[in-house]
Amino acid sequence: MAEAVVSFAVERLGDLLIEEASFLHGVTEKVVEIQVELRRMKCFLKDADARQGEDETIRNCVAEIRENAFHAEDTIETFVLKVALRRRRGRGLQNILKRYACIFSELIALHKVGTKIDGIRTRISSLTTSLQTYNIKRIEGERSSGNETRQRLLRRSYSHVVDEGTVGVEGNVKILVEQLLVIESSENRSSSSSIVSIWGMGGLGKTTLAKKIYHDGAVRRHFECFAWSSVSQQFNIRALVQEILIKLMPPSPEQRMEIEKMSDDEVVKRVYQIQEEKKCLVILDDVWSTEAWDTLRPAFPLHKASNSKIVITTRNKAVASHADPRAFLYQPKCLTDDESWELLNRRAFFGCDNGSDPTINMEEMGREMARYCGGLPLAIVVLGGLLAKNRALHDLERIHRNIKSYLMRSGKDNYKQQDSVVLDVLALSYQDLSYHLKSCFLYLAHFPEDLEISTKTLVRMWVAEGIVSKEDVGEGYLAELIERCMIQVGRTSIHDGRVKTCQMHDLMRDLCLSKAKEENFLEIIGATFQQVEKSSSSTVTLLTHSTIDNVRRRAIYLDQSPPTNSTSIVAEEARVRAVSNNNNKNEDAGDINVKLNPENGTPLRSLLIFYPPKEETVHWMVRKLELKKFTLLRVLSVEGLALGENLPRAIGNLVYLKFLSFKNATLLRFPSSIRNLGCIQTLDLRFTHSSGELISCLRMNEVIGRMKWLRHLYLPYVNFNVGKSKVQWEKLSNLETLKHFNAEQWDIKDLAHLTSKLQKLSVKKLRNFKELEVILKPSHPISSNIRSLLLSDIATKMEEIDLKQLSKCQHLCKLCLVGEISNLPKPDLFPPNLTELSLGSSKLQQDPIPILERLPNLTILSLWHDSYIGEEMVFSPNGFPRLKVLALASDFVKRLKVHIGAMPNLNELNIVNCKLLEMVPEGVRYITTLQTMRIHLMSKDFIQRLQVIDGKEGDDFYKVQHVPSITLIDDDLVMRSIRP
Questions:
Q1: Helix/strand/coil for 968
Q2: 55 three-class SS
Q3: For residue 934, is pLDDT > 50?
Q4: 3-class SS string, 812-864
Q5: Strand locations in 219-370 (E)
């Protein structure tokens, strides 16, 4: 990893020499010299990084190299910043003596920075010599990646599907499903339990097994209500139980507000009652302690005559048995040697270039490596991802030798201490990453356990920090980490398959945290974080005194119950000081105030703050945070925080900031200080306002016009007043995303000054469609480059001739129109590459299906309320050839006619609040690809036609019995089961 740091330092110094040449005049030669010295050292670090485990002296030497590379970058960037600020002030000085004083102080600074650079270069040169004395070899270049790229493309389609290709789970699934479906008689109910516990070590596949039974067809038909919740080590009891309640009874907006107002006891009681009244299946994944279960237990009717079931997954058998002594405990077995080899063979050797099976030598090595994994599926999958990228015999031999050395160096029994074996395998996969991928992987340590991470946000953070150069490069790195099974896919886009969110397995996160500490990559601060990490299998604690002033990245986990008044704030700070004074007992505890605001905040590049949801008070840590110290900060996320006056004002000092997100944060007023952020690339202003009043943003026009490097701009959700001044959109020549543009606040014609880079645009409160003509005309670059367009709250009716203009948008694939439409244009006058279409409030009088079903590339279609005001829709044979998702909501439609052969690839059908619809169409029974149906807010009569009640099938049951997953919610918001 030191190689990564030095490589980034070399690149950054090169960038500075180009970008800041005028400020570096006088020290340019010294910067070049240190860049050359670092480049020379980089050749030795490939070998040194690989051999850190052999000798503590080498480890210390590598760590010192890393710190000196950091120091060189910080020293030069700080100097550039100071000179820039002095010159800016100097231009405004009228007194000649003051101007000369400014020049004189700059010369002093130049001498100081030159001396510092000389000292750093001398130390680096000495360290390079030290490496050679330890027989560290000089290694030039890197392995060819051409074959790896080809293999990555071959594997892309199936390595993303993390739960497919499992081995040896069918028997486990059958046993557990039988336990869930058993119907107790009144005689044996008292001796049985409603809990099924799946327990076993990390990496055994407990969560995968739970998902299999959760989505099992028989299980989905047996139970009425379903809820899945990840408990993990750090959880908010109120938030978790409320999440379960919302999943068990999908509430209306009014009911959601009522739930928010409920006390904790009322929420727990309501969850308890629903499970008594209905057949519910609740899965609590990753329960770590008996204490965690005890806090959740009041929400579940364990000793009542209930047909509901609870499934718990845990690493701890004590937790499994503690939940209920009568519970059915199930421990999945480790894979046998043959099963381990089968799984490894599928992951590593499937799709070989010559189409043949592994050779005898490869199979022998593969079987031996599979045995080293101790029968743990996670370890085998990760190893398979590694081997799939290194299929040449010499690469397999190298990995085979390294697996042995990892185990021997740790002094572990190869087959007994399996938890350690898994971490060894994971560490080997980490070590095989390129230096760019290592940094990308370690960046994930910022995020809390079990959080679904937005891949779009993650990649933009990588770019802002300089870990990757461009977003498409970052997306490639993300795909490679997924293919190596080092991160897991969360949600994907239906129309193009892009990964929208990702997560980390617990063990992989343990490795990530461990390496982040080892490499001084990241510091995590939080009132509850230490105790969380001490219960982790990796026993990582990242709060250490030695790294406070040198840390490059910091995540702050604000505690679960922040103080809400001045007295409690004083008490909390007193508690922190008490912990600090007890350092002899706990060397990792420290003065959190010092950690929040170290004396030297210059090294910090990323600061991410995570806050419990639904808190409206300003946390005491936020009050104490002094952002002005972090002068070289690149990434700042304060999403969801309640912010006072000081923090937003201080952001104006962070002139190097490239990523700033206020998403869902609560602000008192618009932070006009951000006008100083001339380097910003991503700016998310989707904040809220505590009072709900109109926010004054009179300087927003001035603010936005200064940001010439801005790529992604998200304007506020809330109503705001920007005054009469105009944004100089022509200066935003790099803008790619513009969301929530308010046509009442700004003139849509001003967007004509934007360049062809704009790809995503959403506009609200248009007076009429004709306002868009200026950017949709074929001669304008936006029309040829736009990919996503959302138009809402259009005041006047859209005419057919208006919509024809969209046909010139050759790359438009996602279109949403909310407003009245007279008639749809002919199919050949739609954008030719349209894949996703949403219509709302269109008030079409003619059935839109005959036109829309002829769109050749459409994969998602949503027709919301008042999109069509007729009584019948007809889906023709061979219509919608690629449609995968159809959503319908209507107050008018009475009949749906689906002919045989219509929608041959439909995967998901949603019928919502179609109050007059008489029945599910007959043709649904012929759509064999259908996997999911959601029938929401429909009449009880409509739903009963789909149910099997007392063994009697409803009139429409035969039409949907082939669909694996069906959700029924009546118009009283009561969830129903196919088989009550």
A1: strand
A2: coil
A3: yes
A4: CCEEEEECCECCCCCHHHCCCCCCEEEEECCCECCCCHHHHCCCCCCCEEEEC
A5: 225-232, 280-287, 309-314, 328-330
Closest alpha carbon to 349 in 340, 360, 358: 358
Within 315-450, strands assigned E span 328-330
Which phi and psi angles does 633 have, rounded to 5°? Answer: -65, 135
Question: How many CB atoms are closer than 10 A to CB 545?
Answer: 13
The three state secondary structure string of 2-48 is HHHHHHHHHHHHHHHHHHCCCCCCCCHHHHHHHHHHHHHHHHHHHHH
Q: Write the pLDDT tens digit of every residue in 607-653.
A: 999 886 655 667 777 777 788 888 889 999 999 888 766 567 778 88
Secondary-structure percent of the chain, ordered helix, strand, coil, rounded to 5 = 45, 15, 40
Query: Among 765, 714, 763, 717, which Cα is nearest to 744's?
Result: 765
Structure tokens at 174: 């059958």
3-state secondary structure 475-491: HHHHHHHHHCCCCEECC
Sequence-separated (6 or more) residues with CB below 8 Å from residue 623: 569, 644, 646
Judge residue 828's burial from the number of C-beta atoms within 10 Å of its C-beta, 0-12 exposed, 13-18 middle, 19 or more buried.
Answer: exposed
pLDDT of the residue at 442:
93
Q: Give CA–CA dist 612/363, Å, rounded.
A: 50
Q: How far apart are CA 753 and CA 731, in angstroms?
A: 8
Contact 557, 529 (CB under 8 A): yes
Q: Give the pLDDT score at 160.
A: 29
Record the tokens describing residue 332, joined without a space: 């999945």
Average pLDDT over residues 652-661: 89
- How many Cβ atoms from other residues are within 10 Å of residue 127's Cβ? 18
pLDDT at 802 over 80: yes
Distance CA 403, CA 390 (A): 14
Q: What is the DSSP letter of 657?
A: -
For residue 948, what are the contacts with CB-CB under 8 A and spacing of at least 6?
A: 954, 957, 978, 979, 980
* Cβ contact 760:787 at 8 Å: yes
Residues sharing a CB contact under 8 Å with residue 354, sequence separation 6 or more, in sequence order = none
Angle made by CA atoms 350, 353, 356, in degrees to the nearest 5: 60
The structure tokens listed for 102 are: 């400014």
The reported pLDDT for the residue numbered 566 is 37
- Residues 557, 604: contact at Cβ < 8 Å? no
Give the pairing type, strands 975-976 and 965-970: antiparallel
